[in-house]
Hints:
Structural class: alpha+beta
Radius of gyration: 43 Å
Strand content: 5-15%
Amino acid sequence: MALRPAVGAARAGVDARSAAPEHDGLENIQQKKIFKEDMEKTQQSEEPCAADSVDSLMAEMPFVDTDIEDEHAMHATSELSIRKKRKRTTGREIEEGTERKKKKNKQYQPNYFISLPITNPKITGSIQAVQDAIVQKDQRLSKAMVRSGSLHVTMFVMHLSSEEEISIAVGALSDSKVFVDDLLKGKRVDLSFQGIDHFRNQVGFVNLAENDHTALLKEIAETMKKIFQEKGIMAGEERAFKPHLTFMKLSKSTELRKQVKKIDSSLYEDFKNHYFGDEILHRFDLCSMLKKKQPNGYYYCESSIVFGEKQAAEPDDAELVSLSKRLVENAVLKAVQQYLEETQNKSRQSDGSPAKTEEAASGSKNESDNDNSKREP
């Protein structure tokens, strides 16, 4: 009998020990369940922010040393992946909106510009010397060179989508002449070109020396741009106007850009501070970027305004070409007339020619007259 309480106590101890692990197991299961639910809630709260995280990371990435077109390409790639994710949740609205935006951007790409042509032979000859020196060191860059006939300073760019808009732009350019003349006040404007610089090692250009005349040119550009904008023309860019004379750019050849990523500035080191010459401000042209260029390499020109000293003192390129044609035509016409006269003279000297027959008839008439005179008393 003494053992029973002990056995009962032992069983009670065993039951207590077996009950404790069971209670602990339940607590562990509940904790795991709570932990799992917390993890699922955390994942659900983080999933919608994935696109925003990508945007923030892309915004912080340094594109300073990246080509502009490549930068747009990378940004477009990231946007494409984001759009695909959003499309599954929000439908096609964002995708369609993006497509419309892309079409709009393409529609408003510049296709016309106001050009200040460079016609001073000293400037064009000096630039040709620089180009030749660069090509001697790297022949691949011959494809990047701008022809001397195409040399110009771009005042501002614009988009013209129809013949009607081209006509409006021609009118705006014509209206600009009064304002340009008012700004010039009869003064001669000499634009000095000195030194070479580059844009992101993709474009090589000659600097326009900073002086009062350069400041005046900037004022003219701003005034003309406003006149075009008031006519409803999408003209100008957000960035500040930096007048320059481009003589080399990698974008002229797609094949070249695959071979040459950057232009080595040491190629034109000897000309970095070279003085190229002065251009007298005398003309602005409305030019097309896409239409076929003229035979001399200059852009297709819709209209021009001429002013300043050169208007009265020197003929422009178009006048010189017209004069040359007239001189050639006159010389050819004179040569043809001379040839015809010589041919006719030779034919008259040959036997049986109308000239010879005429002489024979005249001789017979004289003989007849002599006979008649003898018979007369």
